[in-house]
Structures are given as structure tokens and as C-alpha cells.
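Journal club side-thread
Mid-discussion, someone asked how the predicted structure for our own chain would compare to the paper's figures. Pasting it here so we can look after the session.
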Amino acid sequence: MMSEDPNQRQEFSSEQQSYGQPSQHEQPPYGQPAYGQPQLEYVSVGPRFLALLIDSVIFFAVDYPLPFLLRAAQGTWGVFILAFSPGLLALLYLIVMEATQGATLGKMALGLRVVKTDGSPINWSQSIIRNLLRIVDCLFCYLVGAILVWNSPLRQRFGDRVAHTVVVRRRRKGQPVEKRGKK
């Protein structure tokens, strides 16, 4: 009788165990959830625009009374504060809300959230990067960002690509994963 080589048997059994499943050392493809995790539903331009519109209404409600409150600030510093405070407040709002809550109020209202490409929550540095790079994305009334989102398989604008983040639909606990497409 021929004896089997133990190394060949071990290779065969490891192949057999991992058939159809990624091995424990294998990483899922870029932008795909790990084995056993639900598929992320990436969000395109329309819902992002509506969320930004809601956030803009909030910015306006906060920024409109600002000049009246800062009327006492005169001179060079007063002009500086009045010129830059609305933009800085909006940027801080975006950074803080996304880093701490995973979404701005506009995104929350539409059931959206910002996550890492693997589906985990973003951190402060990712929130800072993606929101500072809105400067690039908002060129030509967000046309640059829209073109990038339309041409990205993960629906990422420039800030998302650099920060390795995506905007996805928030699923409620117990809600089944829906497959969208042709029926």
C-alpha cells in the first residue's frame, strides 16, 4: 500500500474547509464588507443633495442672527469674524456631527450615515479630511463632487476617496437587507 503524504492531506483539508468562504487571512475586496456582514447600500447624488439642503437650512437659521449678535465687534476683528464665522461654524458642525454621530442632521433625517469603506464608524481624522476636502468637491456648485460620485463604484466624492469613507443608507436593527435592481 502507498502511504499518503501528510502535507498533501493537510493542504486538501484546508482547501476543503475554505471552499466558497474567504480564509481567515483573506481580506474582502476593496469596499466590500467582510464575510457574513450585510452589504452596504451606497448613496448617490440625489439623497446627498437633499441632506446638504436640510443642513443648509440649519446653517442659515444659525448664521442669520450672527451679525446682529456680533454687532458690537467692530474694526478689523469684527470684519474678520463676520466674514469667516459662518463658514467655520458650518465646517465645525459637519466635522463634529459626522465624527460623533456618523451623520449630520440632514443625513439623519434621510436615514443616511457616513462610515469607513468596511462599514465601521468613522473617526475624527476621517471626518476632518472628508469635510476639509469639500473645498475641492464644491467647485462649480458641487459639480466636481457630483461627477466623482457618479463615476465611482462606491459613490465616493473626492473627500470620501481620500478619507476612505462612504455614505450609506442606515438600516434599522432587524431590518432585512434589501436587494435593489430589476425585479
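Post-session note: The two ends are 58 Å apart (CA to CA).
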